[in-house]
Sequence to fold (199 residues):
Amino acid sequence: MNRFLAQLTCLAVCLIPTAALAHVGVGTAGGLAHGFMHPVSGLDHQLAMVLVGILAYQLGGRALWLVPLAFVSAMAFGGVLSALAAPVPFVEIGIALSVILLGAGVALGIKPPAAVAVAVVGLFAIFHGHAHGTEMPLDVSGAAYATGFMAATGLLHAIGVGLGYTVGMVSQIYANSIYRLAGGGASVRALLGHCSETA
Fold:
């Protein structure tokens, strides 16, 4: 019964019916608060960043800190590109793909070398960072806004690592079925959301 309840909860969280696009308004706020709210207000950003934390946990070793650090660093670079009005093509598709592929990787227990994982999450992070930068209000401090979205991202990564640890402990009993359910659910949810937006 506990196994069924855990799986049902993971599936419900991953399939919450919201758009697969990242940009939900958060109203008038200062740069730091607005920057912090942007990653946590879009389900696709949340899922991608939590999945990065879970992936880092699954890889273990140096990847536990290298993978999240690569994401945050590359995301900041993407934000700078946006501030400089440098175009990055297919941002929304890149964000959706990040959830789909990271979710599939977590679900299937794929464990690439740390360097490959760093490169892949870094590429995805550029799309996320560009989206965050594009949504920055004109009347806030860019540095404060960037600090906010980087702090929120770090927190989401930490939540992912914590979830990875928790699920890892439970999965010793349930043979990784929860990882498969959560990662697969996130991938399917992002794919369906992206298809509905482009239809």
Q: What stands out?
A: The longest helix spans residues 142-174. The chain has eight helices and no strands. The radius of gyration is 16 Å.
